Amino acid sequence: MRHKNEINALQQRIKGGQDEQKKNRSLDLEKLLQKYQNIKKELEIKQKMDKLAFEGQFTNKGSSNQSVYMSQM
Fold first, then answer.
1. The whole model's pTM is what?
2. Model confidence over 26-54: pLDDT tens digits?
3. Can you give the residue range of the structural domain that contains 9?
């Protein structure tokens, strides 16, 4: 009887360790996914800002070129 109790206690400890490991893995996965989403969002914002700045260069140059053209007429 004592042997069975020891085996049951050991099995419960193993199961508890496995459950805790699953919980920790799940939390780690959630953290990684959140980090990925944050980095992705930052990159998307940066890309939009770079695109706007790039397009703005041509818009500003185009309007100044038009002014020069119009003044030459």
1. 0.60
2. 999 999 999 999 999 999 999 999 999 99
3. 1-73
Output the six-digit token pair for 43. Answer: 């990159």
Amino acid identity of residue 4, one-letter, is K
10: phi > 0 → left, psi -120 to 50 → alpha, else beta; which?
alpha
CA angle centred on 29, ends 26 and 33, rounded to 5°? 140
Overall domain count for the chain:
1
What is the residue whose two structure tokens read 């703005």?
A: 56
DSSP per position, the chain:
-HHHHHHHHHHHHHHHHHHHHHHHHHHHHHHHHHHHHHHHHHHHHHHHHHHHHHHHHHHHHHHHHHHHHHHH-
